[in-house]
Amino acid sequence: MGSDDRTLTNRQGHPISDNQSIRSVGERGPATLENYQFIEKITHFDRERIPERVVHARGTGAHGWFEAYGRIGDEPAAKYTRAKVLTRAGERTPVFIRFSTVIGSKDSPETARDPRGFAIKFKTVDGVWDLVGNNLKVFFIRDAVKFPDMIHAFKPDPISNRQEPWRFYDFVMHHPESLHMVTWVKSPWGIPADYRHMQGSSVNTYKLVNDQGVAVLCKFSFEPKLGVRNLTAQQAAEIQARDVGHATRDLHDAIERGDCPEWEMCVQIMSDDDHPELDFDPLDDTKRWPEDRFPLLPVGRVVLDRNADNFFAEVEQASFGTGVLVDGIDFSDDKMLQGRTLSYSDTQRYRVGANYLQLPVNAPVTPARTNQRDGQMAFYVDRGPENPRVNYEPSSMGGLTEAPKPERDYHQWIEGHLGRYQTTRTADDYVQAGERYRSFEDWERDDLIANLSDDMKQCPEHIALRMVWHFWHCAPDYGTRVAEAAGIDLEAAKALPPLEGKPPPGQNRRGPTYTSGKLEQEPGRNAAE
Question: Model pTM?
Answer without folding.
Answer: 0.87
